[in-house]
Amino acid sequence: MADRSDSDQGPFHSGERELQDRFDSRRLADRVSQVTYHDRFSESDRAYLGQRDMFFLATSDADGNLDCSYKGGEPGFVRVIDDETLAFPLYDGNGMFNSSGNIVAHGKVGLLFIDWDKGWRMRINGRATIDYEDPLLAEYPEAQLVVRVRPDTIYPNCPRYIHRMDLVERSKYVPHDGCEAPEAEWKANFEDVLPEEQQRRRRGG
User: Fold this and answer.
1) The pLDDT of residue 42
2) 177 pLDDT band (50/70/90 cuts)?
């Protein structure tokens, strides 16, 4: 495991330092981290995140086994609750609960947000928690869980290699107020093992 115990490492572990020294980027890394790293959400962070309709979520279990998933919703589904807390919903998926199970077991997360139009991106590393009785659940139609993240590091990333892409349409499966999202078509192949509530709903019960 990479070592962060040396005070000279700063925010970087020994593996990162090894590569920075190999490619002579230690000075650059130090300056960039000093200028951009922060652990509280600013008003500009809040505005940026409030416009996003997707992000990538990286999690791991207690043994270091990794998972990365796509999370999508309507703009504003990710909320900055206060300067130390970000929240987002988890909707019905494949029933495996990979991301949320990792959060319950371990808690450390990495989030990557991308503005495909302007090429801007933001990374958030921190610790996530799940409360099954989170009061925000009532504010997210059809959400199964709400995840709250307390950031350790928030920082922008170089936009140089981000492809510019246009939104064709948002997923019809994203829940909305006042209407029930359609069932995932692939679940027709797994009717007999679906959660009982979903089986009843699909039968019209």
Assistant:
1) 97
2) confident
Instruction: State the Cα angle at 139 between 171 and 51, rounded to 5°.
Output: 50
Beta carbons of 126 and 109 less than 8 angstroms apart: yes
Question: Exposure of 178 by Cβ count < 10 A (0-12 exposed, 13-18 middle, 19+ buried)?
Answer: exposed
User: pTM of whole model > 0.85?
Assistant: yes
Per-residue pLDDT tens digits for 11-66? 999 999 999 999 999 999 999 999 999 999 999 999 999 999 999 999 999 999 99
Domains of the chain: 38-190 (2.30.110.10)
Q: What pLDDT is recorded for position 175?
A: 87
SS3 for the chain is CCCCCCHHHCCCCHHHHHHHHHCCCHHHHHHHHHHHCECCCCHHHHHHHHCCCEEEEEEECCCCCEEEEEEECCCCCCEEEECCEEEEEECCCCCCCHHHHHHHHCCEEEEEEEECCCCEEEEEEEEEEECCCCHHHHHCCCCCEEEEEEEEEEEEECCCCCCCCCCCCCCCCCCECCECCCCCHHHHHHHHHCCHHHHHHHCCC
| Residue among 82, 79, 100 nearest 91 (CA) | 100
